[in-house]
Amino acid sequence: MFKAILFDLDNTLLDFLTFKKETAKAAAKAMIKQGLPATEIEVYGKIFSVYDEKGIEYQKTFYEVVKQYNLELNLAEKIQQAGIIAYQQKKYEVLRSYPMVKPTLRKLRDKGLKLGIISDAPRNKAWQRLVLTGLENEFDFVITFSDTQEYKSHPSPFTLALKKLGVLPDAVLFVGDNPSKDIKGAKLIGMRTCLARYGQHFKDDVKADYEIGKFEDLMRVV
Ligand SMILES: [Mg+2]
Asked: Rg (Cα) of the chain, in Å, rounded?
């Protein structure tokens, strides 16, 4: 019945929250080791406060954290760079797709389904994460925030996906973890929806047509 499946990226295909937590812990530890006068729990909390305030993709997080301690500029820079390096190293170590993502994507493709991504991440970050997790060649197309300058649930990225697919919206299943962005946006445009319950860290304010508790359960939906 479906001709295409579209996926959100972070917390749907990739375990993004684990990655953000582990990198924040590693960065906090490295910054304290270089002289930041604080505890790990305090710095970890400050990193997530910046994410809450500026968005999880904010690029000057460690600068914002270190700034709060009014340190001499060279010491502050050393600490900030130590945080950035620790974050990067940890990222390569921990950023992974959820179990069974790749084999399940292959099975879906074998059924003749087109596969695409709609992500709110910037283009460079989305592709970096796909390459890091080995999923860079599994999709017919990837739409990021950089393509439409609109975040889900805005219709623009969904409309662009339909244009690329050339199918009617009700022949498309959208899989995502965020009810108010993924599920709401896909519903608005007339797609069928599936909530990735395993990645969901948000309130259930919009009901999806289907739910999956693990990625491979998608095979029972399509
Ligand atoms: Mg997500």
From this structure: 19
The alpha carbon of 85 and the centre of ligand 1 are apart by a number of angstroms equal to 25
- Tens of pLDDT, residue by residue, the chain (222 residues): 899 999 999 999 999 999 999 999 999 999 999 999 999 999 999 999 999 999 988 999 999 999 999 999 999 999 999 999 999 999 999 999 999 999 999 999 999 999 999 999 999 999 999 999 999 999 999 999 999 999 999 999 999 999 999 999 999 999 999 999 999 999 999 999 999 999 877 777 899 999 999 999 999 999
Rounded distance from Cα 176 to ligand 1 centre (Å): 6
Of the candidates 184, 186, 211, 207, the one whose C-alpha atom is nearest the C-alpha of residue 199 is 211
Indicate the class that CATH gives domain 4-15+97-221: alpha beta
User: Nearest-CA neighbor of 48 among 12, 80, 23?
Assistant: 23
The full set of domain ranges for the chain reads 4-15+97-221, 17-94
Torsions phi, psi for 114 (to 5 deg): -80, 145
Q: Are 148 and 160 in contact (CB under 8 A)?
A: yes
* Full-model pTM: 0.91
The architecture in CATH of the region 17-94 reads Orthogonal Bundle (1.10)
Interval between CA 13 and ligand 1 midpoint (Å):
8
Centroid of ligand 1 to alpha carbon of 70 (angstroms): 35
